[in-house]
Every structure is written in structure tokens, then in C-alpha cells.
Specification:
Elements lengths: L13 H4 L15 H4 L28 H9 L3 H10 L1 H6 L9 H23 L13 H10 L9 H11 L8 H8 L19 H7 L18 H6 L3 E5 L7 E3 L2 H5 L6 H6 L7 H4 L4 E5 L1 E3 L3 H15 L5 H12 L3 H9 L3 E3 L4 H11 L11 H12 L1 H13 L3 H35 L1
Parallel strand pairs: 1-3, 4-5
Antiparallel strand pairs: 2-3
Pfam families: DUF247
InterPro entries: DUF247_pln
Keywords: Membrane, Transmembrane, Transmembrane helix
């Protein structure tokens, strides 16, 4: 076929096939297909839809919420709609996709969703007065709605909630809407973000993420991957619960173990239980501090949505994705989970240790890590495991000192061997020793 012949039907308009350009305000995303297929349910609201991505779905909400908001503020729908209309383009630009919703319907959707959310936060703040409330009076319903409100696909931009609250709800609470949101989502808030970071909050998913932000982060290329928790433990690493920060992981090696890796007696500390009370001995050993990881039926959904936000919006400082990637390497089997539970690092409310291992291992599927704030940690752990002395100690510990009974048998065997050896060589050594004494 002549190379100059081109079939018109085969020409693809690349510009038309590409995604539309995203606006600088974009911060609310739909889960890409490759991530959604891992666990579709984790990104889909169950009871209530907020925003355009799931608009029109079946919902459970107080039908009088909008009326109650108008009665509370003394404002009508038109007055509230004026603020929304003024910000209409900015609100639309916050979403990663264009959607076929007309202006009037879009304004009505934002009006209903925003008034519902603000009214819910205000009622929760004064919940003693709303014991018979449709949502707050039903703890299971309230818990389910709270979970729906942190899904990334189920968000309104925080700025429109803040503007409506400041415009119409001043005097109804001494708290800012930021503080009201932190109170309402208290089960998922690690620490309330500092005031200067309040302006950075894009929506509720972003608020949950920001509350877990560690201090003094430095992101680098991670070139090494640590081995499992049980293997590190066998090579002398002592695991401790770290009670400062939900994502802070620290690995400490004393100067003595750095200088001489064989000066590692953590195996002896475990076998001789009486020595574990001496903190000075423990601190001479490699120490890995990991924060508490509470796992229940809500954990996976929360983590997946925060990680999705980081993949789409914070790819270069994805500290939650980085944290789960490290846990993914530390936890590979049921034995790793059991070990971390024994060390009080994992709090298992799911029941099955195998399910936890599987959950952790699938959380990072289809997740791309560009930079990591645990790059130095991973390298230090890899270097520790790579040292022959540490692996040899690990083999001895696993074979001869894995528990108190085996340790006792090993020590008794060594004593018996020592006496037997001395009995064997004594006839040859004793005369020489006596002759030396005589001289």
C-alpha cells in the first residue's frame, strides 16, 4: 500500500480525546477506573449523596433540613441562592469532570447540600437539644452519614460552606465552621490542624488528611523496600508503640550498634525475661517505633479516600500513601499481624488477622509513589537487614532462642557440652597445669 494514502476514518482527534483541562481550583475527583475496580464500594456513598458525581441517587436525609436552616437564619432560599450564584463558576471548577446539570438544577443541588451540612453541624454542636432528631437520634444512621460525608466523590468545596456559614449563621454558635467540622468528624481527626492551615482545607476529605499530617516532612525518592516485621525482629530490631503522631515512624540505632553490628543483644533481652525491665539495655539495641494502627470496618474506606485524594491532588507529598506503603512491606502474612498485635501496635477490631494482612496488602494496589517521606527510614531498615551479622544473629535466635523453653534447653545443652568437652581434654591438660604449679 502506498505510504501516502491515509484513511480519513483512521485519524484520531487527540485533542478531543484528551481530558478537559483542570482549573486551579480543582480538588474533588472521581476515582479512576483502575483504582475503583480494586474496591468500588469504598468510594460510593451508601445513604446520602453530596455534589454532582452521585447526584440523583436514593438518599436518607431530613427533608425539612433546608426549611430548618431558613427558619434558623431567618433567610429565604433566594437570599441563600444569591451567594451560591456568585460563586457558581468557582464551585464548578472544583470538580475534575464536567457534568450535564443545568445552572438552575446545579444551584438547587448546592443549596440543598450546603444547608443540610451546615444544619447538621450546628445540630451536632448542640446535640443535647436534638435527642429526637431524625439523624442525631439514630447513632447508626449518624455514623453511616458521617462516613458518606468524607468520601472524596461526595464533597462540596469547603469555601462555599464557610461563606454561607459566616454570612447567615453568625451568632448561632461561638465556633467557626472549621471547628464544628472537627467536632463532628472527631472519630477520624487525629489532631485539629493549626489555625494557619485552616485556609488550606479544600473539603472534608482534605480535613481528615490534614489532621494526620506529621511534622518536619522531607520527601525523597525511595529506592529500597524494607522486609517484613517478623524478619526485622529476628535480626534484632525491637518494636515499640510510638504514641506521638499517627503517622510518625522512627528507627533508632545506638552508636554502639552502628559501630559494631554484632553488639546486638536484643535476642538475649527477649530470652532472659528479667532483663527486659532494664531500659538502658533496650536502648542500646535497634529500636523501631510505630504508631497505633486501629483497624475496624471503617478503616479501609477512610484510608482509600484519603489515598485517592493524595494520588490526584498531592502526588509529591502523599504522606498517607507513603505510610501505608511502609506498612505494606512490614505486613505480609498473618504472622506479621499477630506479631504487631502482640507489640500493641495494631488494634484489631475486625477479628481475622488474615483479613488485616490482605487489606493492608491491597490498599496500595494501583497506587503510584513518586516521593516518600520514609525514604531514609526504608534505607536504614534495609541496611540493617543486609548486614550478615544481624542475619546470623537472627538465625541463631530463630533456631535456638525463639522462646524461653528452647532457650533453656540450649543453655543446658551448652553447659552439658562444656562439661563433656572439659572431661575429654582434662587428662591431657591437667598434668601440664599441675607441673606449672609445681615449678
Amino acid at each position: 500500500m502506498d505510504n501516502d494514502l491515509i484513511c480519513d476514518e483512521s485519524i484520531i482527534d487527540v485533542s478531543a480525546a484528551m481530558e478537559p483541562a483542570r482549573w486551579p481550583e480543582c480538588c474533588i475527583y472521581r476515582a479512576p477506573g483502575r483504582i475503583r475496580k480494586v474496591n468500588k464500594e469504598a468510594y460510593t456513598p451508601k445513604l446520602i449523596s453530596i455534589g454532582p458525581f452521585h447526584h440523583g441517587g436514593k438518599e436518607v436525609r431530613d427533608e425539612d433540613g433546608e426549611k430548618e436552616f431558613c427558619d434558623r437564619t431567618g433567610k429565604c432560599q433566594k437570599e441563600i441562592a444569591v451567594i451560591i450564584e456568585k460563586n457558581l463558576d468557582k464551585i464548578r471548577h472544583c470538580y475534575s469532570e464536567s457534568f450535564d446539570i443545568g445552572k438552575e438544577d446545579f444551584m438547587k443541588m448546592v443549596l440543598l447540600d450546603s444547608t443540610f451540612i451546615i444544619e447538621l453541624l450546628l445540630r451536632f454542636d448542640d446535640r443535647g437539644k436534638y435527642n429526637d432528631d431524625f439523624i442525631l437520634g439514630n447513632p447508626m444512621l449518624n455514623s453511616s452519614i458521617r462516613l458518606d460525608l468524607i468520601l472524596l466523590e461526595n464533597q462540596l468545596p469547603f469555601f462555599i460552606l464557610e461563606e454561607l456559614y459566616e454570612k447567615f449563621c453568625e451568632g448561632h454558635s461561638k465556633k467557626t465552621i472549621f471547628e464544628l467540622a472537627c467536632d463532628y468528624f472527631f472519630p477520624f481527626i487525629e489532631k485539629e490542624p493549626e489555625k494557619e492551615k485552616m485556609k488550606e482545607v479544600k473539603h472534608f476529605t482534605d480535613l481528615i488528611r490534614l489532621s494526620h499530617c506529621p511534622n518536619n516532612l522531607e520527601f525523597k525518592d525511595r529506592v529500597k523496600n524494607p522486609c517484613t516485621a517478623t524478619k526485622l525482629y529476628e535480626t534484632g530490631v525491637i518494636f515499640k508503640l510510638h504514641d506521638k503522631g499517627s503517622l510518625d515512624i522512627h528507627f533508632h540505632k545506638s552508636l554502639s550498634t552502628k559501630t559494631c553490628p554484632c553488639f546486638n543483644f536484643s535476642w538475649l533481652l527477649k530470652c532472659l525475661l528479667g532483663l527486659t525491665g532494664f531500659g538502658c539495655l533496650e536502648h542500646t539495641q535497634p529500636l523501631l517505633k510505630i504508631p497505633k494502627f486501629i483497624i475496624n470496618e471503617r478503616t479501609e474506606g477512610i484510608l482509600r479516600n484519603i489515598m485517592l485524594l493524595e494520588q490526584c491532588h498531592y502526588p509529591l507529598d502523599a504522606f498517607v500513601c507513603n505510610h501505608m506503603a511502609i506498612l505494606d512491606y512490614l505486613i505480609n502474612t498473618r504472622e506479621d499481624v499477630e506479631f504487631l498485635i502482640e507489640k500493641n501496635i495494631i488494634d484489631n477490631d475486625l477479628g481475622s488477622n488474615e483479613v488485616i494482612a490482605e487489606m493492608v496488602n491491597t490498599l496500595c494496589l494501583e497506587i503510584v509513589e513518586k516521593k516518600s517521606c520514609y525514604a531514609d527510614l526504608a534505607e536504614d531498615l534495609c541496611d540493617h537487614y543486609a548486614q550478615n551479622c544481624n542475619r546470623s544473629m537472627g538465625y541463631l535466635r530463630r533456631t535456638y532462642f525463639s522462646n524461653l523453653w528452647r532457650t533453656t534447653v540450649t543453655i543446658v545443652g551448652l553447659i552439658v557440652f562444656g562439661f563433656t568437652f572439659w572431661s575429654t581434654i582434662r587428662p591431657y591438660v591437667a598434668p601440664k597445669i599441675d607441673s606449672v604449679h609445681c615449678v
